[in-house]
Structures
1.
Amino acid sequence: MWLIKGKETPVNAGTFMTHNGTGGLYYIFNPNNYDTIAITLEPDAHGVMPRGKPVLAAALVKS
């Protein structure tokens, strides 16, 4: 999962594995610091930049 603000370098918000096609993640962050959240299918958990195929991206609503 990646947190993104404009053209800045994405922040790795963690790697998680699914089980039987489902999964969950609990993560605390200030949504005002980012404008987009994205999930990618990564080849491993060692990336500092997205390298895998994007599967979800959504704008964050400002509070």
Note: The chain has no helices and four strands.
2.
Amino acid sequence: MTSVGLRARARSCLLAGALGDAWGGPYEGLTGPVRPSFPDAPRLSDDTWLTLATCEAIVLNRGRVQPERIAERFRRWFEEGRITGAGSATLKALRDLAAGAHWALAGARGEFAAGAGAAMRAAPLSFFLDPNIEADRRTIRDISRITHHSDEAYSGALAVIVALRLCATASVVPQDLLSAVANALPDTAVRDRLLDLSAFRESPGDAALRFGCSGHGVEAVPIALFVAATTAREPLESVIATAVSLGGDTDTIAAIAAQVAAISGRPVPEGLIARLPEAPQLAPVLDPFISLLQ
């Protein structure tokens, strides 16, 4: 793929994530199935703000990906009031960073550390880090731990990165996406759930009822990839609507599903992007990031 093609797909991926986040936000926490329409007053959550902060950190670091630089951007954006809608684990980490904690010590531990918070902001890393390289995997793990000290959270972030890299050169989301991603993951519950879903032949709604769609990484990430794979030939709006209809952690699931769908070539509805009140804040961060891609 040419650098122009990669840049176009990267832009679509990151904008689609923002669109899924905004569309899913008003429905978060509801029990599915729901019938989602695009909200009259869409708002972006920490899913998008932390993704953008990650992009900015990579730009300021001239294309190098370092956890300490990303943590510094998280702290700065949090102190400036630019991050809204953070979950408990992420909020705890941001407060710790603002209080001067080292990035490797700020992340939540225990039961609440296994959320999808690391996965929801992982997309920018897929353009610079190769999970086949051990040093890059360690960097992904370290960046995940800024907010979530959990092997499951890391596995969820790794799954998103692997999925995006697999789809970045495809013309459609591969049918074997879930099993291919699972084969690249460590032995975790996220990996097991992906394998279970790879053999599941019913609808996304049935999958959500059976396997769950909460904010836990073991539920949110696999179901998001399942939605992307089972709606592989549908327009992006349909992919997002399907993800949101499941209920649960709707903004994160819709954001990840939309990222995977868009990077595989689905056009992003620019009219819906223009309806985001925060749309003017996207390009000043995304344009310099995308210009780094070769």
Note: The two ends are 10 Å apart (CA to CA).
3.
Amino acid sequence: MNSLEIIPQIGFGLWKVAPEDCPSLIVEAVRAGYRHFDCAADYGNEQAVGKGIADAISQGLCRREDLWITSKLWNTFHAQEHVEQACCKSLNDLGLDYLDLYLVHFPIALEYVPIETRYPPEWLFDPDAQNPVMHRAKVPLSDTWCGMEGLVAKGLTRQIGVCNYNSGLLHDLMSYARIAPSVLQIETHPYLTQEKLVRLAGDYDIHVTAFSPLGALSYVELGMAEKSESLLVAEPVTGAAALHHKTPAQILLRWGIQRGTSIIPKSSSADRMRENLAITDFTLTDQEMSAISALNKNRRFNDPGRFCEAAFNSFHPIYD
């Protein structure tokens, strides 16, 4: 049995990590002290992540039961009869018997694409079509959740949860869930504090994991953010960094865990990996926490209402 009862505060995110880099990065991250790895079918690198996990275990750096491995159900597998198939594919790619956490990646149901046709299926139904677009599927989120609950019953995942849900969807989910979600993973950082949603999750006893905890950093290269939007140069982040003799990135990550969320930064640098972990030996004052939270602009970088239309010729907002 997994000895972990709660998700580790600081994890390692694997979005946008090239498959050829994953095995060595996983081993280096485990050596640095990471035990929480955030994966997803849509990242297209789970086989390589699995090799890294196996390498770390074979080298005696950790045991499987020391690790917290998260993966995510992609949009094209939302139908109840496809949920287990998707989970088993991730398990097979990762080389695991069970997941610690399996999340619904987006509250977006897209038409099913068989694994043997294309994997990961991504967003477009037929990328080779003359005018490729997303194809919505008529699958209620309640059906998807029923499939997720079935995974727990079969021991394929220890816990289940959701990503990118808003308050309304969370209220709705809690009205029918037989197994309550244990985790809500959302984009949150000082430019998008999402205080009401974080508080609501707490009221439902749902833990919050913050993706993109450093804000714009992951999105500049994708054309989804401007360099001028970097939180690393924002006051009062830089002021707190100077006072605590920490980097601005460490201040942002500390802000994330100090407000009670777990965080999943990523880095290809061994030094940066260790730096991201070195945030438990200081505490931000209440004034510093408040001043950093006051940077909020409700600036969402990962917004399907913007990137789906720009990249996939399909307007599909999920946030108002």
Note: The first helix runs from residue 22 to 32.
4.
Amino acid sequence: MAASITPIQEVPDIYPLIDTHTHFDEPVFDNDRALLVQQAYAKGVRHLVLVGYLYKHFERMYDAERLLNTTKTSNSQKVSHIESHIAVGLHPFYINEHSEEHSEEHLKNLAKMIAEQRPLAIGEIGLDTFTAEMKAPNVFARQVQFFQAQLDMAVLYQLPVILHIRKAHAEVLSILKAHAYDAHKLGGIAHSFSGGEQEAKAFIKLGFKLGVTGQITNPNAKKLRRAIQAAVDSHGIECLVIETDCPDMMPIICQASDNSWPNKQSRDRNTPANLSWVLLSLSELLEVSPDRLAKQLWLNSCNALRTTWAYPL
């Protein structure tokens, strides 16, 4: 990218936003997480969801949540306060972390944690056949086992789910249609949606919102942009939520050259502050004003996550 790209500090207006999917507990943020919270708050982020993928990292997530929810200055006054929330789930791409002999134990431990700590949602869960290894019949069968078990937990504890789907949209849709989980009642998000137009409409029909990341800022992401446009043409802007998926999915406009950022780490990480670029790019694509879109996205996020967070005035 050319050095003339507008840096994140020059987003023209501020709109209240909910980052529905982050991994902001990752160690890559440990050195400057408090500063990044201030930057995100300055760009409108008021809530963010820390989404789980491995059981061994759940404790780290809860530690980060406690820290983020008690951010204070040296004189004990809250500043740049962003409410953080937890979703816990066992990610399909890391299914090999759960050996067959320990599968039931790991699922029981997850269910116990959900019962005792009541997360905001269960996720990210689903199916992933992105690599040849993940397509292997035995590996895929265990992905299905874990996906269905976690959908069972969502029904039992009446929680929304956050779906991870790569190269497996038809398979996920088939399982959801046959399962008792009802996103119309419980909510749910198809995180970082990457399917086609018909798949987008199918997930919406089941009651899910489509999660839109910084990929939408890439003019070459034509399949994604067509799918989101088609979904909105059929179902309105009520079908979308936005997310950073940080530290991944960096918006194109933030992929600046060495001269545009103070250090390499800033260039290599997506951060919650960049959510505003997702809003603005989506606004341009859909020809909807940022103000109207931000308000609707807030309502959509609350609906998907079954919360009642008040829109800041």
Note: The CA atoms of residues 177 and 206 lie 8 Å apart.
